[in-house]
Amino acid sequence: MITLLSTIFSILGIIQFVLGNFADGFIALVNCIDWVKRQKISSTDGIVTAVAVSRIVLLYVMVIHWYLILLNPALYSLKVRTIVHVAWTITNHYSTWLATSLSIFYLLKIANFSSRTFLHLKLRVKSVVLMMLLGASFILVLQVVVISVSGTMQRSEYEGNFTQKTKLRDILWLSHVTLFILGNLIPFTMSLTSFLLLIFSLWKHLRKMQLNGKESQDPSTKVHIKAMQAVISFLLLFAFYFLVLIISIWSPKKLHEEPFLLLFPTVEVFYPSVHSFILIWGNRKLTQAFLLFLWQLGCWLKDGR
What we know:
Layout (H helix, E strand, L loop, with lengths): L3 H35 L4 H28 L7 H33 L5 H8 L1 H31 L6 H50 L7 H32 L7 H24 L2 H20 L2
Helix pairs in contact: 1-2, 1-8, 2-3, 2-8, 3-5, 3-6, 3-7, 5-6, 6-7, 7-8
């Protein structure tokens, strides 16, 4: 039954979905056009484009899940639920880890430390990001295996001792929760560490500038601040998103109550949609292209009157 509450949340969800797809599509389009023109793409643009593409798929998976549980629960069988869960796990994983790799990339490219280890990583920043993504894929494989096994067990008629069956379900559930927390807590910790190290690097830079009697608003300071703003915005949005997901896992009964059934999907869409606009704002090329688009749109609307 369609109620006023479901209508309001549906409208909010659709608006966020449209805006998120627009922002992600805009990022991918601008960077791909620039890639074709220049015949090359920078590491930053490559990571941002990958984040945008993963977010587009993630948003569609979220909307499909929302449609099935809210508007067409008859189609939401155990098999379909497992498929949607696996698709969400994969897209959410890459969306999170690619955004985290952007934080690591900012740290290694912008921060200045005399440590040999840091300098070694700084010279091999592309390899560091690649190895980090490959290492994180191990967690993803384990998550997919656990979800698939759990779904298969629920669909099939399990013969044997009921206690053993319950124990197996408990082990799978505990494994799923553990892997989920690790898969999100590790990138959050890495991004938070990047942010703190950027602050420390900026503090050292400002102190050096003061000792030399130079202006503090130099290009290096501005780059530090810009990177810190991008990282902290991701951290705040991701922390909010992660908290909602944790609540949904530890209180699954809440998801069957109408207010929560409507609220959780709407809140989940908020994080990938809003962060995409922050990525545009934090990239000068994307910001200029976006402002040009808005100006052209304004001219078109003005001429169309």
